[in-house]
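User: Structure please.
Assistant: Input sequence and predicted structure:
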Amino acid sequence: MRRTILRTPLFLVLATAAMLACLLVTACSGGGTSNVPDRMGGALSPLMELDGDEPDSLEEASAADNPIEPLEGSSFPAPEKELTVMVYMVGTDLETNHSCATNDMLEMANTVFDSERINVVVYTGGTQSWHTNIPNDRNCVIEVAPGRLTGVAQTARSLNMAEPETLSAFMRWVDANYPAEHTALVLWDHGGGPATGYGCDELYGRDTLMLEEMDDALRAAGYGDQRMLDWVGFDACLMDSIEVLQAFDDYARYFVGSQEVEDGDGWDYKLLEKIDPADPKASAISIVDTFDAFHADEERSIARPGYTLAAIDLSAVPRIEAALDNLSASVLSDFEEGDFATIAQARGRCRSF
């Protein structure tokens, strides 16, 4: 039976779905019970090892002092393609206790995506124990191709995946070594929205990346201004809120995330077969459609609060900011007039997460 762990953060962040209406490209939602089958299959290619000493203590590790180095036999830069999808995979207890990260990598490799046009590059870290031959005392770069997962590079020591420098160093390395006309980013792990951020590195005190740190990382990676990610997606709980959208609208054209918690299945990585390297909007929509099809069709073994995923046009964020300002002014005016009952009734009718 497939895992049923929820990607639940420390606490739930309340949100109002109606506030996102003017940004929405597409969305899905549902609920019910489930009996999740095992979608895992295939095997990892052996990861090659770097020569050298064993890693020192975690406290000594930093991205600046421990750059990503190609493994023996790897050749870079790779030929240029149309799209590179970067997957930043913080394994945490989802991997240690439930092998969620390993299962999703195998799921990626079991898709038949167009590897002539698309690079898929995974960066691993942040977990006590991998359920495959990935070491936890260093960060590894894994190249995904149909039927194959190959370790191609690694750091000498384990880096904190919740440090912005770790994320930006990975993105810069991928840009240099997997050139593509278009780029996209998937952030995989727990999520807690604007309150607790994203990621939960088990090796560094369950440290997380806050929104300001993600902003710093993307800016340091060279994004913003004239250079944008085609889309950014969170395979994580609770990351689709106005605050998160505001953090990313300078760096990406489209955003994919969930207002609700996700269970351990998370995204269905058959999405790799559906994304269009030349059409970021269609790609974002296809991620939602693939997610919805999987979660709607599969029987489930636990009662769940429902599932959500939405694709959002980040160019429309200023409109939601203006709408939120108008709403706040109206609510404040009603408060000043003592109309608490109307506000309470309206709030009670709003869906929250």
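Confidence is low (pLDDT under 50) at residues 1-6, 8-22, 31-57.
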